[in-house]
Amino acid sequence: MLLNNNVTEFILLGLTQDPLKKKIIFVIFLLSYLGIMMGNMLIIATIKTSRTLESSPMYFFLFYLSLSDACLSTCIGPKMIMDALLKNATISFSECIFQVFSVHYFGCLEIFILIIMAVDRYVAICKPLHYTTIMNHRVCSILVAVAWVGSCVHSLAQIFLALSLPFCGPNVIDHYFCDLQPLLKLACADTHMVNLLLVSNSGAICTVSFVILMFSYVIILHSLRKHSAEGRKKALSTCISHITVVIMFFAPCIFIYTRPPTTFPMDKTVAVFYTIVTPLFNPLIYTLRNAEVKNAMKTLWSKSLISGDKR
What we know:
The structure is a single chain. The protein is mostly helical. It has one domain (9-293): Rhodopsin 7-helix transmembrane proteins (Rhopdopsin 7-helix transmembrane proteins, Up-down Bundle). Helix content is 76%, strand content 3%. The protein is built from 11 helices and 3 strands; from the N terminus they run E-H-H-H-E-H-H-H-E-H-H-H-H-H. Strands 2-1-3 form a 3-stranded mixed β-sheet. The model has no long low-confidence stretch (mean pLDDT 85).
């Protein structure tokens, strides 16, 4: 329920107000967004067209990680790119609330998928004889469904917090997208309790998930001592890829969502890492270090060329 809400739209200051820098940002982020969509859509298409990859739990989860990456960037990227061409970028109140919901939804989904992928690697490496039994298709589907539902619950909580705040002016958001932290500064009410709820929600999810993930990978890496040299090398390569993604995504999220309602000049730059940089590098990390994915992509490319020649 809205309380004394006189604000119908917000002004987004973006990353900068300098006209030349805005043009540079437009080019950089347009290319980045195109790279994100091409890279993640390529992984999605490769997994869906490869029977070997689609039947593997690890790639089943990678499919949803790429999907969440693409969706997260789409919630922010296109508008941010268009806003870079405008002198005054605005967003309606309803669009702002929807952006808060979608960013937290797909961001939280990515967190849950990363946790599921860590569980999958733990079972594959520490309990290889029971892997196919434990991580069967039904279990994998249930885990992904729980991730979707959990993300929805988290996002609805964010929306409830946002709609509980009265906005009566000013309406200038010092950010390039709508999020609860910059919105708290604009509310004409005491936001201390809301910030505590924000930290206990988003902050706790980010911090606890990061600790769980790092602890699980420590256990996995410790157990690799019992494997053969070849098996250890392959498992280590996979784990290093996952750990790289985890650090790139969680470090900026923890910095943003686990502190009092104060903003710093670097906040917008830090947010770029989990909204743009991580989704851009995820496809590279998972393909360049993974022979199975690269081979499947070559097969997909060959089929595309053959189909093109037949036409």
